[in-house]
């Protein structure tokens, strides 16, 4: 099926997108957008009995309004089940977004991000269903997955039970810029946090009696930088990135210390490490652990006392890389080419729901649908590219093997 022959109702697809963009649903608060997507699926012809929510939200360690939304379409031609996925949530910067059309772009009013990440995905999947059912296009069995809390740690995809996917053999995840860009791999991530408990003293009268948690933390980060573990990491045995995101007080929500005349007795620091190899992400994290231990020994009070340093870490999500010969990759390339486009395979330095879907046993290729400048107040959706993403979804669903 060529680009020109795909019977997409472009006007309806754009209306869906504008509607979804006006519905607030920052990460953890997806109930309203989930309800809107469910209603539109029913309007498109999906039976209410084929739409359901799982209980992933009960296992997510953060307050979450609802589970992942799933819907199923029975196949009208033989073939293995295909999964299409996207996420329901947006980053908090999208709260209160007011979308408006400016030429071929949809933008916000400049005070918030827009939410094209990932309302484009929601609109693409609903437009896909509408197109398949309205025009009775032959397709294999299809499962649709709309995840929660993607933006705050890929939690919905992580806590998803693989049995919910009905034995799907491949997946196409809508969460990117260009329809022709196929993301076939992504880094994994380790998160770490450290509590530094020093000892307070009067900074003017008796600073030598204190143990500055601020100084321990600062020396540790300087040591991590000196050792090559901060920012872009290039070592003989691997590569990756790291960042220190929070340097604060209790829970990272307050300032570290509350007065200049008191030696700071507590600091909380949180960071991350990413790499195409899980073992190397763990090695970057260990580099930080060693830096904090070294710094601990450099800061002592007059009696030789040292700070208490508690360092914890855990894997956030695993890396993955699909081989070009993987059927999902080959199918995606063929679909892109059917639209007259040239496919480009990419490896992402950011985590995707695909990281967990692959872990759950479903090879997943991520496609784009017009997202630009995401997570910023300059975010916009390129409408022609969004429509290209809709057409690609239809091609992926209908193209023969």
Summarize the structure.
The protein is of the alpha+beta class and 401 residues long. The protein has helices at residues 10-21, 31-44, 116-134, 155-158, 213-226, 278-296, 327-338, 353-359, 383-398; strands at residues 51-53, 69-73, 82-87, 100-102, 105-107, 142-147, 170-174, 181-186, 188-197, 231-235, 238-248, 266-275, 308-317, 320-321, 344-348, 364-367, 371-372, 380-382.
What does this protein look like?
- By secondary structure, the protein is of the alpha+beta class.
- It contains nine helices and 18 strands.
- The chain has a six-stranded mixed sheet, sandwiched between helices.
- Strand 17 (371-372) and strand 18 form a beta hairpin.
- The longest helix is centred in the N-terminal third of the chain and has 19 residues, at 116-134.
- The protein starts with 9 loop residues before the first helix and ends with a helix.
- The mean pLDDT is 96.
| pLDDT < 50 stretches | none
What's the total count of β strands? 18
By helix and strand content, what is the structural category?
alpha+beta
How do the strands line up in the largest sheet?
A: 1-2-6-3-7-16
Name the average pLDDT: 96
